[in-house]
Amino acid sequence: MNFEPFKLVPVGHVRKEGETFIEILPEFGEAMDGLNEGDWIKLILWFHASDRPERRSILKVHPYNNPANPLRGVFATRSPVRPNPLAIYAVRINRVEGNRLYIDWIDAMDGTPVVDIKILVERLDCPEKSPEGVVNRKGT
């Protein structure tokens, strides 16, 4: 298959300066309207440090980069090595100051591009059971 590339633009960056926060770029400041302390959001990040052609072609990994774990398809893991190195985090906003959303620590590097932010909707993002009644397993 031949796919056409498409463009994602960062709306901000992860910053780690004593505390962890998302620094929203000035041109996207109005998009923060309605976000408040205590809100849960989903961050969609581009793991730019993992974005190399040879890493995009890896389709199976040892979870947690531990060879003792059996190989799994990257879609069944949270590995940064994947066809599109996106990362998704559910985080609580601890406080909002200007163009900064202060959050708890996440394992993204300082400077990691944030490509989108969405509010967390419990019925869509945190189902207890699948439609078939199977409880979701913990991610690897």
UniProtKB/TrEMBL annotation:
GO biological process: methylation
Domain TsaA-like: 8-129
Pfam families per record: TrmO_N
GO molecular function, one term: methyltransferase activity
Keyword Transmembrane: no
Regions annotated as coiled coil: none
InterPro entries listed in its UniProt record: TrmO-like_N (IPR023370), UPF0066_cons_site (IPR023368), YaeB-like (IPR040372), YaeB-like_sf (IPR036413), YaeB_N_sf (IPR036414)
Keywords carried by this UniProt record: Methyltransferase, S-adenosyl-L-methionine, Transferase
Family the entry assigns: Belongs to the tRNA methyltransferase O family.
Database matches in PANTHER family: TRNA (ADENINE(37)-N6)-METHYLTRANSFERASE
NCBIfam families, alphabetized: tRNA_TsaA
Protein name: tRNA (N6-threonylcarbamoyladenosine(37)-N6)-methyltransferase TrmO
Gene source species: Thermococcus indicus
Gene name, Swiss-Prot/TrEMBL: tsaA
